[in-house]
Design goal:
Its cofactor is Zn(2+). Pathway: Glycan metabolism; pectin degradation; 2-dehydro-3-deoxy-D-gluconate from pectin: step 4/5. Catalyzes the isomerization of 5-dehydro-4-deoxy-D-glucuronate to 3-deoxy-D-glycero-2,5-hexodiulosonate. Pfam families: KduI. Its EC number is 5.3.1.17. This protein is globular. It has helices spanning 9-12, 17-24, and strands at residues 2-4, 25-26, 34-40, 46-51, 57-58, 74-80, 85-89, 92-96, 101-104, 111-115, 124-130, 138-141, 150-152, 158-161, 170-176, 187-193, 199-200, 205-206, 210-217, 225-231, 234-240, 244-248, 255-258, 263-270, 279-280. A hairpin with a 2-residue loop joins β7 and β8. The strands form five sheets. It has an eight-stranded mixed beta sheet, with no helix packed on it. The protein has a seven-stranded antiparallel beta sheet with strand order 2-22-19-24-16-15-14. Strands 5-10-7-8 form a four-stranded antiparallel beta sheet, with no helix packed on it. By secondary structure, the protein is mostly beta strands. It has one domain (2-285): Jelly Rolls, CATH 2.60.120.10.
Length: 287
C-alpha cells in the first residue's frame, strides 16, 4: 500500500508540475491480477483497484493498517467499470455488472473479487474510509427491483445538469449517500458527460468539511482531462489520462475539462455527508 501525506495550500502553490503529480495524481491503476491501494493522510481515505483476470483476489489489511482484516475499522465503496464480476463478502456472492457498485460495511472479514470472463475482466474501483459503526452491506444497481441485499438507485439520485451551450451537459448518478445507502462518512457516485460536453463541476466549489477523489475514465488513449485544483485564487492544473485518479484536499477546487467527453467517479470522505454543503466559487473569482 502506497502512503501519501497531506499538503498545505501555502506549500502547494509553489509546487512544480512534477511535484503536483507526485502528491495528487494516482497512476498505474487496474494492473491485471492485482489489488493496488493508495492510503492518503487526507481524511485517511484509501483509493484503489482490484482487477481479477486469471485468479480471485483477496482483500487483506497489510502491515500499513495495523488491523486484523481490512474492514476491522473501515467501510468500503466499490464501483465496477469493467466487465461483469463477482464480489464475495463473508461467503455471500454478489454478481456485480458493469456500472454497478457495492457498499461493504465495517466488520466484514473475508472479501474477494473475481471476473466472470477473463477476456473481459471486471475493474473494481475502491474507496475506503474509517468507520465507527456497521451499516448493511448492499449491492447497488442503477435499474431493477429491490430485494434483500440489493438497492436500486432512486430516480431523484439520477440528476441531469448543465447544457450543451455551456459544454457541461452531464448526468450525475449517486450511489452511496444518506437516504439510499447508509454509511459512516463515505459518499460516492458517477458523473457521465454527454457527447459534445467537456466541463465537469463548473462553476466550481470547495467543501471544507470533506475531501474528494476523482477517477477519470472512458477516454481513448490520445485524450486527456485537464484537472484543475488549488485555492480559487491560486489554481493549478494536472493533465490526467484514462483510468487515472486525482486526490483533492478539502481546501481545493476540483474541476476538469477534457479533450472530449468522459466519465468520472467521485468519492467523498469527511465529517459531513450533505451533498449540497459546498462553498460556490463565482466564475469571475477564479485566478
Amino acid at each position: 500500500m502506497e502512503l501519501r501525506t497531506a499538503s498545505s495550500p501555502r506549500d502547494v502553490k509553489h509546487y512544480t508540475t512534477e511535484r503536483l503529480r507526485e502528491e495528487f495524481l494516482i497512476q498505474g491503476l487496474f494492473p491485471a491480477d492485482e489489488i493496488k491501494l493508495v492510503y492518503s493522510h487526507i481524511d485517511r481515505i484509501i483509493t484503489g483497484t482490484a482487477t481479477p483476470v486469471a485468479k480471485k483476489l483477496e482483500l487483506t489489511a497489510g502491515d500499513e493498517l495495523r488491523a486484523e482484516y481490512f474492514l476491522q475499522r473501515r467501510e468500503l465503496g466499490v464501483i465496477n467499470i469493467g466487465g461483469a464480476g463477482r464480489i464475495t463478502v463473508d461467503g455471500r456472492v454478489y454478481e456485480v455488472a458493469s456500472r454497478e457498485g457495492m457498499y461493504i460495511g465495517m466488520g466484514s472479514r473475508d472479501i474477494s473479487f473475481e471476473s466472470v470472463d477473463a477476456g473481459n475482466p471486471a475493474k473494481f474501483y475502491l474507496n475506503s474510509a474509517p468507520a465507527h459503526t456497521t451499516y448493511p452491506t448492499v449491492l447497488i444497481k442503477r435499474e431493477g427491483t429491490p430485494e434483500d441485499g440489493v438497492v436500486i438507485i432512486k430516480d431523484e439520485n439520477k440528476v441531469e445538469l448543465g447544457s450543451l451551450e455551456e459544454s457541461n451537459h452531464r448526468v450525475i448518478c449517486k450511489y452511496i449517500l444518506p437516504g439510499q445507502v447508509e454509511s459512516c462518512q463515505l459518499v460516492m457516485g458517477m458523473t457521465s458527460l454527454k457527447p459534445g460536453s467537456v466541463w465537469n463541476t463548473m462553476p466550481c466549489h470547495t467543501h471544507d468539511r470533506r475531501m474528494e477523489v476523482y477517477l477519470y475514465f472512458d477516454l481513448p488513449e490520445d485524450a486527456f482531462v485537464m484537472h484543475y485544483m488549488g485555492e480559487p485564487t491560486e489554481t493549478r492544473h494536472i493533465v490526467v489520462r484514462n483510468e487515472e485518479a486525482v486526490i483533492s484536499p478539502s481546501w481545493s477546487i476540483h474541476s476538469g475539462s477534457g479533450s472530449r467527453a468522459y466519465t468520472f467517479i467521485w468519492g467523498m470522505v469527511g465529517e459531513n455527508q450533505d451533498f449540497d454543503d459546498m462553498d460556490g466559487v463565482k466564475m469571475t473569482e477564479l485566478m
